[in-house]
Design a protein that fits this description.
Blueprint lengths: L1 H33 L19 H9 L6 H8 L1 H13 L15
Helix pairs in contact: 1-4, 2-4
């Protein structure tokens, strides 16, 4: 029984650590790729994760709503796009820890 509890605890901590690492990578990708245009004085409106709810970010990406979607996807790639989306959803307005000031307005 103790081993089962230990295993559950270990796996929980392990997956939480992986999620946090992936989230950090998503944040770095967001700043590196999105902040170029989505900044004060940039060619697109300033955006931050907490500007939208998680489901709104998910719909935005899944429906290809970005005005330069093909260009964005070809430069970022599908895997990095997923990491950025994960970061946005994990830090969205309705998340446990919204981030509102990643890109200064």
């Amino acid at each position: 029984m103790k081993f089962k509890k230990f295993l559950i605890y270990f796996l929980t901590v392990y997956f939480m650590a992986l999620t946090n690492l992936w989230g950090d990578e998503g944040k770095d990708l967001f700043i590196k790729n999105c902040a170029n245009c989505h900044k004060s004085g940039g060619s697109a409106p300033v955006i931050n994760p907490a500007d939208k709810a998680g489901e709104i970010w998910k719909k935005y990406f899944s429906r290809g709503r970005h005005p330069d979607n093909e260009k964005m996807m070809s430069s970022i790639g599908e895997e990095n796009s997923k990491k950025i989306l994960n970061y946005l959803m994990n830090n969205a307005a309705d998340s446990e820890h919204p981030e509102a000031a990643i890109i200064p307005k």
